[in-house]
Specification:
6-stranded mixed beta sheet; 4-stranded antiparallel beta sheet; mainly beta; Jelly Rolls; 10 strands
């Protein structure tokens, strides 16, 4: 009987493990567009069990001056960003500390250097409630 109890417990734990991932990375390749146009860079599903996610922007790399975040499904608090550029220079650390409601978007965030080729965008957040589920967080860049 005890072995059966342990087996049931182990199987239950295995079914929960996919939801206990601590971060995820989305990989995207932006489509070409005109200067001044917002272009989609990627989306991740922010979970209440995670606090950090990243979007990898694949080439052909393009120059972006600004980024913004759009959130659906559940609100989040965006705490910090780390933007790594393709030129190999130091990453840009941006303290954001603002709340984005479900269906809302962040303020426009100006990037250092005005014309930089983005390699990755890492962001730290906390979700505003377990009961509200996952937040879909999309990132957009402006040339």
């Amino acid at each position: 009987m005890r072995a059966l109890t342990y087996l049931v417990f182990a199987l239950s734990l295995l079914t929960l493990l996919p939801d206990l991932s601590f971060s995820q990375t989305a990989v995207s390749a932006p489509r070409p567009g005109a200067p001044g146009e917002w272009r989609y860079l990627g989306t991740v599903n922010a979970r209440f069990t995670a606090d950090h996610d990243a979007i990898v922007v694949q080439g052909p790399y393009d120059f972006f001056r600004k980024i913004k975040f759009k959130v659906t499904s559940a609100p989040i608090n965006l705490i910090r960003l780390l933007v790594t550029y393709d030129d190999g220079g130091l990453p840009e650390n941006i303290d954001t500390r603002f709340s984005i409601p479900a269906g809302g978007e962040s303020r426009v965030i100006d990037l250092r250097g005005n014309r930089r080729k983005i390699r990755t965008i890492e962001f730290w957040y906390d979700t505003k409630g377990v009961l509200q589920g996952r937040a879909n967080v999309s990132v957009f860049g402006q040339k």
